[in-house]
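Researcher: Go.
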Amino acid sequence: MSYQLVPIPNAAHVRERPPPYRSRRGRLPRLLLVEDSALARRVVVRALAGAFQVTAVEHAKAALARFQPGAFDLVLSDHHMVAMTGLELLEQLRVIDPFTRRVLMSGSEIPGIEGHLATGVVELWLLKPVDLRAALLALIGRKELFS
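Model: Structure:
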């Protein structure tokens, strides 16, 4: 199996971005996980334990209900979900808070993903399987937590 990490493009279209990790007294980064598979949700929560404060929801509607500007440092969404794709969700979340980092994951290729990366709708695209902990910590610049 090969892993594919897509680099984060320059988001010059958005006003100047704050530091990638907004630390408050050394707290863990707050991550909103959107995954419709209960098993995958449990696996991801366990994989990220100790490195992130994870709030897990099962679909895009629940994510939109929980999401508020500044509430999360990072959103990690599966792409293939029932009522709304992860890409559609990340587009909406970007409008609500353009400073929350947006990561899309999928078990298959996503046609046109390069365009969404170029415009900053998606900052990082992960093709499953992937070492989520390492990829997300690298995105927010917390390499000291790799283990």
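Model: The chain has five helices and six strands.
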